[in-house]
Amino acid sequence: MRTIVVMNQKGGVGKTTTSVNLAAGLARQGRSVLLIDLDPQGHSTLHLGVEAMGHVPTIYDVFAGRKTLAEVRQLAVDKLWVAPASLDLAATELELVDAADREVVLRQSIEAFTASQQIDYILMDCPPSLGVLTINALTAAKEVFIPLQPHFLALQGLSKLFETTALVKRRLNRDLRVTGILLCLYETGTRLAADITDDLLHFLEMSDAHAPWKQAKLFESRIRRNIKLAEAPSFGQSIFDYAIKSSGAVDYAALVEEVIAAEMGGQASATVPQAA
Predict the structure, then answer these.
(1) pLDDT digits (tens, 9 = 90+) for 172-221
(2) What is the distance between the alpha carbons of residues 89 and 106, in angstroms, rounded to a whole number?
(3) How many whole angstroms separate alpha carbon 204 and alpha carbon 213?
(4) pTM of the prediction?
(5) Cβ neighbours of residue 7 under 8 Å, at least 6 residues apart?
(6) What structural domains does the chain harbor?
(7) Do the Cβ atoms of 139 and 107 come closer than 8 Å?
């Protein structure tokens, strides 16, 4: 089983889009996937057309100790379950502030879940902040994927993400490491995108050998700007269900192929759709 956090404290960089479409793409390849929505805005939940209204249990109930992950998850599509989020989750930051072991609530819930459930991937879509929800995710996971827009200011914010993962690795989770960086909203043929890519590769190459991001891979897949990716959430569908032949589907299928290749020691098996 792989446990992966998708995080960036900057909003609008493709974090939720990546969480949803990576999860959906893995499910299409026969992997069983649980997507945990840790953003009080509930965008991953909405993106997959999952209900989180009224008395529907959500991930907030897991943090509050009222429900288990198995009890709150909902089947979105074949092989893909979502632990939904709602605005109630925003209260978690305050409710856990003085709680003992507040950083490990999610880890304990995942350990209990996987003790009785077969699952191949657990993906966690974090809020655009580095608060207690994100720390819980980092404490529960073994891998971090960072979606990044190829802009200078986005690159500057990367150092804060790396500092946070290093702190969590040192104090809470020795197994944590940054394994993937994904360039989203990519504009092919621009000098800026190429320069940011080169700077990022140089930074990773020059990093300290013991840094949790030293072995991070800059995914070869580039998620290009694509209007279909922006439209899909309003239909409650992943890009694969909404526009399978779009460039967005092609790009995320390529990402899925890379992720599976790492799982299988380099032997990829995903089928990449052709762009229209």
Answers:
(1) 999 999 999 999 988 877 777 788 788 888 777 777 777 777 778 899 99
(2) 13
(3) 7
(4) 0.91
(5) 15, 126, 134, 137, 138, 144, 145, 146, 161
(6) 2-263 (3.40.50.300)
(7) yes
Element of type H or E holding 35: strand 33-37
Q: Are strands 2-6 and 121-125 parallel, antiparallel or unpaired?
A: parallel
Upper half-sphere CA count for residue 259 (Cβ side, 13 Å): 32
Q: Per-residue DSSP letters for 147-177?
A: EE-SSHHHHHHHHHHHHHHHHHHHHT-TT-E
Rounded Cα distance between 117 and 81, Å, is 12
Nearest-angstrom CA–CA distance, 159 and 77: 36
Among residues 128, 91, 107, which one has the least CA distance to residue 10? 128
Residue 202 exposed, middle or buried by CB count within 10 Å (0-12, 13-18, 19+): exposed
Phi/psi of residue 121, each to 5°? -135, 135
Helices and strands (DSSP H and E) totals, the chain: 12, 8
Read off the amino acid at residue 276.
A
**Residue ranges with strand state E in 57-128:** 74-77, 80-83, 121-125
Instruction: Compute the distance between CA of residue 168 and CA of residue 215 in angstroms, rounded to an integer.
Output: 17
Please tell me the distance from the alpha carbon of residue 265 to that of residue 253, in angstroms, as a whole number. Answer: 18
